[in-house]
């Protein structure tokens, strides 16, 4: 009897969860489907779901018009570079906040987060001038630095929450064994924090990949990532739904695939200290 | 317990992050403050001298200022309300036994990976367009007149688009928190005959307090700065001008750097008010 | 045979400009319109002739404006050529931010550029940007629907006729809207349309002392007429429709008439994209008998920011892209209907082009717009659908947002005009005009 009830509940749960999951995913699915239609089919009335003539024409048009490989490469370097650099700078800071806390630790953390609230558009002009002076305009290095700074507070905070969960006794034991500070961080702490670091890494790659203000405004041709690629397909003359869908799919596919493959790491670590 | 040695080591280790962020904050902030006291019009020859608080007065006395604050708060508040409440429900659902949980989770997370520009373009053109959008077809199918989403229901539409993007984030954090909930406690309550609503109100919700705090804090930071969603969909028309969009108009469309910088200073003040407010209300949850 | 000519021209060009000692890579910012995308496809032809490589930065119009304006005002130097319009060129030229194009080769024949275009792209008689294509606006209408309604489109109709014809052509059940017009917020979208339309109703943006004029009856008439007609016969959601939205509506056979850029003529008559290609007629933009028509004047043009290190290569590119031989290149490959229109006099003297159905009406429309005398009452500004002052883009965007809100029914026309008046005077005061 009890068994039958659970079984029934499981069926209901499954149906509800799948229904909602598909509903949430539907806009992405629809974009992907539209990318394989012709422009006329893309706006057909009534809309066609699957019974259309699948075509790769939109992809070949997009590939011919833009140097997709370069946009993709720039995105990878900028998102990856800013995240890795951010983590290298954040690990020591998060370590010291977690294990040598002072009265000001929480204030410093909050202050760091508050730097994220500076409205980007208000400082575009000063930053642009600065970039010209430093010769960083339209360079990947420039964007790596800016995106690292934008995401640094999040990185520090995430790492801090993971480090805090590591029991202090382990560190003390290591210290007893004569481990130096460097050893402590490198050989004791870091391995224990790998899941947390992995999840921090993933979240920040996603955030950097999707950042669309600085990446668009501080680049021209050489360093432009996929956000700029999208801006050339957003509203051209004539029918464009199918080509826009193809370009959109190409822009989000790499990060979507990365996210799906690594979702276990992302999910297990994405707590921001919310779980005690 | 911390020794003098480790204290100074800690300071050294914290230094790079702190110095970098200090620079990232101070340099633009100083420049913004500097410009905000100037009449600075790039298209009219650039720096036209000091004007005191003129820009500050002009920015607030503009008819667009208070509506923009209101719009900002509506968008932030609306998205938070939707993502947190739906996020809790979705997290509870996803925590139930079911078939294909991993795949459902993937489907639910997916919107978080989509660039804001792309999601705004897709929603605007392929869903909310009153002639070709899928929602228009749906409405017509049921014999209703299609809604002109981005003009007649502009704010709700934007809140919906942004909520779609952030729901996965809220759900994920809340799901992790729910998974850490002691299931024995819940089962005991169930045995005692506590109805589901009571179990939810007295056990689940308090347990999620901390996670909800985190969701609100992180999302607020990002939501105060949303830009692409508005730029792509309405371009600030139909009452969707947020404070950061208003600053964009002053700086880039009107090319009035001084006025825009004064707006930037106001935005920083607003952000800090919101931050202090958040800290006061939810900060306790973050202790320990 | 064409190829040999082109090679000859290229040799002549490189001899004259003589700067191209080594091959360079130039960066060009451009808008993602059809003609520009086509030009990108022919980049190889330019590289073959000059040895220079080209990096394209193709952006949607609003992003492009934001991007190039930031770069030019800060002298950022991210681009060697920028695609700009008739609004920006005289302002930037006056600031000394653009390289004057007063030394173009004899082969290029700068005198062949349509005077209306050259005038709009110059400051004090010096050309600062070369037109890639030029446009005015005109009526495009469905001749079959017009006949069905039992009406006949004159060559130069009045607004009253248009309104009656729109009502007669409208068939809501068949999803045919009598008229499609821009209502989308943005100075280059709905703002441009309503400003050009207001000229024919006797309205103007400013009086001779730079006072906003939205409190005048002429503006109220313009807006009430527009909204009345669109509510009667326009498509659903017209308050968010811009050029693109209307183009696809028209191509799908959902509009009886469409008043918009003359360049659209080649899209709506192209059977590959348009379901109504063989039943499109053209007429001059309407008037109200006050002496001004409601057509605008615009050019997308190529300009070189002052301070670029690659000026010679940039000049070579501009001479290539806006030359007669580029037009021939496109004509040879894609047909005369697809060449960039509205830039050169010689194009309209070409017999092959005269056979294109919309050629004459395009030229007539361009010739009937005068940026120096666009309003019925005198105005202090230059420009037909804009006022060529730096503050205009910002003001007009906000004003057009108020108008769009009125189109969508969120406020009345009177409220929108009152707000527009306040916004404009406020901004003009801030800029020191009043």
Automatic annotation (TrEMBL), chain A:
InterPro entries noted in UniProt: BP-dep_ABC_trans_perm, MetI-like, MetI-like_sf
Biological process per Gene Ontology, one example term: transmembrane transport
Sequence intervals crossing the membrane: 12-33, 71-96, 117-136, 142-163, 184-209, 240-261
Record has Membrane as a keyword: yes
GO cellular component: plasma membrane
Domain ABC transmembrane type-1, first and last residues per copy: 72-262
Subcellular localization(s) per the UniProt record: Cell membrane
UniProt KW keywords: Cell membrane, Membrane, Transmembrane, Transmembrane helix, Transport
Family of the protein in this entry: Belongs to the binding-protein-dependent transport system permease family.
Name recorded for this polypeptide: Sorbitol ABC transporter membrane protein /mannitol ABC transporter membrane protein
Organism this protein belongs to: Shimia abyssi
From TrEMBL, chain B:
InterPro entries: ABC_transporter_permease, MetI-like, MetI-like_sf
Pfam families: BPD_transp_1
Compartments reported by the entry: Cell membrane
Residue ranges annotated for the ABC transmembrane type-1 domain, each copy included: 69-278
Broad class of where this protein is predominantly found: membrane
Recorded topology in the membrane: Multi-pass membrane protein
The protein's name in its UniProt record: Sorbitol ABC transporter membrane protein /mannitol ABC transporter membrane protein
Organism of this sequence: Shimia abyssi
TrEMBL record, chain C:
SUPFAM superfamilies for this protein: Periplasmic binding protein-like II (SSF53850)
Protein localization: Periplasm
InterPro entries on file: Bact_solute-bd_prot1, SBP
Keywords: Signal
One GO cellular component term noted in the UniProt record for this chain: periplasmic space
Signal peptide: 1-23
UniProt-listed PANTHER family: ARABINOSE-BINDING PROTEIN-RELATED, DIACETYLCHITOBIOSE BINDING PROTEIN DASA
Family: Belongs to the bacterial solute-binding protein 1 family.
Protein name as annotated: Sorbitol-binding protein /mannitol-binding protein
């Amino acid at each position: 009897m009890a068994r039958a009830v659970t079984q029934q509940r499981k069926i209901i749960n499954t149906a509800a969860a799948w229904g909602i999951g598909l509903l949430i995913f539907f806009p992405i699915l629809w974009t992907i489907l539209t990318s394989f239609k012709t422009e006329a089919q893309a706006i057909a009335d009534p809309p066609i779901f699957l019974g259309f003539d699948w075509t790769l024409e939109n992809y070949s048009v997009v590939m011919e018009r833009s140097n997709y490989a370069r946009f993709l490469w720039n995105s990878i370097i900028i998102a990856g570079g800013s995240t890795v650099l951010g983590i290298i700078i954040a690990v020591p800071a998060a370590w010291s906040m977690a294990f040598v806390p002072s009265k000001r630790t929480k204030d410093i953390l909050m202050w760091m987060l508050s730097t994220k609230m500076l409205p980007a558009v208000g400082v575009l002009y000063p930053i642009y001038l600065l970039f010209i002076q430093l010769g960083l305009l339209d360079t990947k290095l420039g964007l790596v630095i800016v995106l690292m700074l934008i995401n640094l507070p999040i990185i520090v905070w995430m790492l801090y929450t993971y480090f805090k969960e590591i029991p202090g006794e382990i560190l003390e034991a290591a210290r007893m064994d004569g481990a130096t500070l460097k050893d402590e961080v490198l050989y004791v702490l870091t391995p224990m924090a790998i899941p947390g670091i992995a999840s921090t890494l993933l979240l920040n790659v996603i955030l950097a990949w999707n950042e669309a203000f600085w990446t668009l405004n501080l680049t021209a041709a050489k360093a432009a990532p996929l956000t700029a690629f999208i801006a050339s397909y957003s509203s051209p003359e004539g029918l464009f739904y199918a080509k826009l869908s193809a370009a959109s799919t190409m822009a989000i596919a790499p990060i979507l695939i990365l996210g799906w493959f690594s979702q276990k790491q992302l999910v297990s670590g994405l707590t921001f200290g919310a779980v005690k | 317990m911390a020794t003098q040695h480790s204290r100074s080591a800690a300071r050294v280790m914290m230094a790079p992050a702190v110095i970098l962020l200090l620079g990232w904050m101070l340099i633009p902030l100083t420049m913004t403050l500097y410009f905000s006291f100037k009449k600075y019009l790039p298209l009219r020859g650039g720096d036209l001298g000091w004007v005191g608080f003129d820009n500050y007065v002009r920015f607030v006395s503009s008819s667009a200022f208070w509506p923009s604050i209101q719009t900002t708060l509506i968008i932030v508040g609306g998205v938070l309300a939707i993502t947190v409440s739906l996020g809790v429900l979705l997290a509870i659902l996803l925590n139930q036994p079911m078939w294909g949980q991993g795949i459902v989770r993937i489907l639910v997370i997916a919107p978080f990976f989509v660039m804001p520009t792309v999601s705004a373009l897709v929603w605007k053109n392929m869903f909310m367009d009153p002639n070709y959008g899928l929602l228009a077809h749906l409405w017509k199918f049921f014999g209703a007149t299609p809604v002109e989403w981005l003009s007649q229901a502009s704010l709700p539409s934007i809140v919906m688009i942004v909520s779609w993007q952030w729901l996965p984030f809220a759900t994920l954090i809340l799901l992790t928190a729910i998974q850490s909930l002691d299931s024995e406690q819940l089962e005991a309550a169930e045995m005692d005959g506590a109805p589901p609503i009571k179990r939810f109100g007295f056990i689940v919700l308090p347990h999620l307090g901390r996670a909800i705090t985190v969701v609100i804090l992180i999302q607020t930071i990002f939501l105060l700065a949303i830009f692409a969603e508005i730029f792509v969909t309405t371009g600030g028309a139909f009452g969707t001008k947020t404070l950061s969009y208003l600053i964009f108009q002053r700086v880039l469309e009107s090319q009035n750097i001084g006025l825009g910088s004064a707006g930037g200073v106001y935005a920083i003040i607003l952000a800090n008010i919101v931050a202090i407010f958040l800290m006061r209300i939810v900060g306790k949850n973050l202790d320990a | 045979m064409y190829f040999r000519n082109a090679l000859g021209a290229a040799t002549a060009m490189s001899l004259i400009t003589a700067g191209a000692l080594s091959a360079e890579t130039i960066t060009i910012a451009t808008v993602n319109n059809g003609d520009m995308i086509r030009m990108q496809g022919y980049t190889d032809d330019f590289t073959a002739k000059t040895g220079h490589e080209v990096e394209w930065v193709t952006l949607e119009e609003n992003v492009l404006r934001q991007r190039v304006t930031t770069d030019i005002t800060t002298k950022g130097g991210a681009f060697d050529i920028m695609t700009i319009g008739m609004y920006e060129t005289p302002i930037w030229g006056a600031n000394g931010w653009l390289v004057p194009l007063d030394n173009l080769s004899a082969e290029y024949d700068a005198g062949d550029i349509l005077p209306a275009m050259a005038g709009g792209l110059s400051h004090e008689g010096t050309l600062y940007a070369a037109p890639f294509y030029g446009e005015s606006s005109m009526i495009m209408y469905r001749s079959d629907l017009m006949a069905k309604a039992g009406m006949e489109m004159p060559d130069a109709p009045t607004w009253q006729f248009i309104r009656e014809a729109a009502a007669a052509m409208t068939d809501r059940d068949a999803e045919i809207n009598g008229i499609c017009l821009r209502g989308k917020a943005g100075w280059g979208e709905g703002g441009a349309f309503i400003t050009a339309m207001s000229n024919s109703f006797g309205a103007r943006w400013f009086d001779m002392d730079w006072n906003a004029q939205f409190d005048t009856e002429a503006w109220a008439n313009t807006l009430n007429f527009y909204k009345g007609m669109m509510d009667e016969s326009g498509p659903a959601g017209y308050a968010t429709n811009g050029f693109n939205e209307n183009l696809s509506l028209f191509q799908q056979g959902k509009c009886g008439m469409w008043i918009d850029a003359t360049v659209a003529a080649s899209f709506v008559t192209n059977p590959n994209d348009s379901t109504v290609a063989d039943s499109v007629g053209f007429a001059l933009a309407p008037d109200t008998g006050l002496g001004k028509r409601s057509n605008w004047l615009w050019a997308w043009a190529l300009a070189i920011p002052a301070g670029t290190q690659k000026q010679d290569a940039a000049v070579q590119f501009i001479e290539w892209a806006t030359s007669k031989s580029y037009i021939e290149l496109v004509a040879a490959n894609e047909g005369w209907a697809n060449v960039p229109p509205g830039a050169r006099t010689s194009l309209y003297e070409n017999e092959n082009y005269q056979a294109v159905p919309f050629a004459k009406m395009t030229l007539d429309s361009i010739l009937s717009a005068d940026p120096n005398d666009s309003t019925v009452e005198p105005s202090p500004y230059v420009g037909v659908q804009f006022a060529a002052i730096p503050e205009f883009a910002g003001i007009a965007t906000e004003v057009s947002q108020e108008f769009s809100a009125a189109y969508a029914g969120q406020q009345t026309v009177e409220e929108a005009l009152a707000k527009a008046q306040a916004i404009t005077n406020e901004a003009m005061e801030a800029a020191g005009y009043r």
